[in-house]
Amino acid sequence: MVLPNFIICGTQKGGTTSLYNYLKEHPQIYLPPKKEIHFFDLYFKRSIEWYRKHFIGAESQRFKAIGEATPSYMYLEEVAERIHNTLPEVKLIFILRNPVDRAYSHYWHEVRLGYEWLSFEEAIKAEPERLARGDIISRLHYSYLDRGKYIIQIDRFRKYFSKDQMLIIIAEELWSNPEQVMRKVFEFLGVDPTFKSKTWYKKFNVGNKKPRIKALQLIKGKLHRFVYSLPELELLIKPTSFIIDKINLTEGVPKMNPYTRKFLIKYFEPYNMGLEVYLGRKLDLLYQ
Questions:
Q1: Number of domains within the chain
Q2: Three-state SS annotation for the chain
Q3: Is residue 282 annotated as part of the catalytic site, yes or no?
Q4: Mean pLDDT by 10 residues, the chain (288 residues)
Q5: How many whole angstroms separate alpha carbon 169 and alpha carbon 182?
Q6: CATH code where residue 68 lies
Q7: Rounded to an integer, what distance in angstroms lies between the CA atom of residue 231 and that of residue 117?
């Protein structure tokens, strides 16, 4: 059994699901059926053989690029060193989105998961206190603003990986010009760069739904917490989660308060500027 030679590390709610699905279509690329494996964060105490089992079927000679996509890898501090110690030659892909939009999308994702009961403004105000707890649930589920400080997270990976091993793409550029961006990704992975697909004009995991009753969604959150200690329970919990979503979710996430948006654009400005310096180009799409 083989191990991956590339990883999509993040960011969460930044377009990783779309990129995962686009890459799966390429005949020279192997990605496992389960998108998020979480080996280097949640399940690192499990054996490397447990990790290898996720790539059964990737042994074929036709696969030049073998990968996985777990967006929380980018954010959690301990992951970069773990990946380097296990896969020092691996290639890393980071897909970044306007951090204001990412934060708001992350918030509604947590509402749907049943972890969040506060308003968006209350949630970002409570974020420092929540993150100060230091537990994995708080770090993964309440890091709305902290995850948008991309340059800090990229710097952690720069300690262990060369610039040639790291590809950073912007989600808004992928969505507006998928052929150009996907060609860049294929060249980075060393596969046929001329491959094209009509699927690239479709977004995956958009998440434009809100719950009718928040209390009902919170039941789903309580069930979801069991998966952290026993991922095998996911298959048992999934039907209940599906039923809750089916009866409780409705279309139409409200627009962000314009004053909140203005505040967050200013908040993320220094971090966006740091990313621009690292990449050596302007990133106007991250300031809107």
A1: 1
A2: CCCCCEEEEECCCCCHHHHHHHHHCCCCEECCCCCCCCCCCCCCCCCHHHHHHHHCCCCCCCCCEEEEECHHHCCCCCHHHHHHHHCCCCEEEEEECCHHHHHHHHHHHHHHHCCCCCCHHHHHHHHHHHHCCCCHHHHHHCCCCHHHCHHHHHHHHHCCCCHHHEEEEEHHHHHHCHHHHHHHHHHHHCCCCCCCCHHHHCCCCCCCEEECCHHHHHHHHHHHCHHHHCHHHHHHHHHHHHHHHHHHEEECCCCCCHHHHHHHHHHHHHHHHHHHHHHCCCCHHHHC
A3: no
A4: 94 94 96 94 93 91 94 96 97 97 96 94 98 93 97 97 96 94 97 93 78 87 78 76 87 93 97 95 85
A5: 10
A6: 3.40.50.300
A7: 24
The domain in which residue 30 lies consists of 6-208+253-287
Dihedral sign from CA coordinates of 132, 136, 138, 142 = positive
Nearest to 217 by CA among 243, 254, 256, 235: 243
145 close to 253: Cβ distance less than 8 angstroms: no
The pLDDT assigned to 219 comes to 87
Give how far Cα 149 sits from Cα of 47, 143, 243, 247, 267, Å: 32, 10, 35, 36, 10
Q: Specify the pLDDT at position 236.
A: 73
Would you say residue 94 lies in a domain? yes
124 domain-assigned: yes
Identify the active-site residue in 13, 91, 149, 220.
Answer: 13
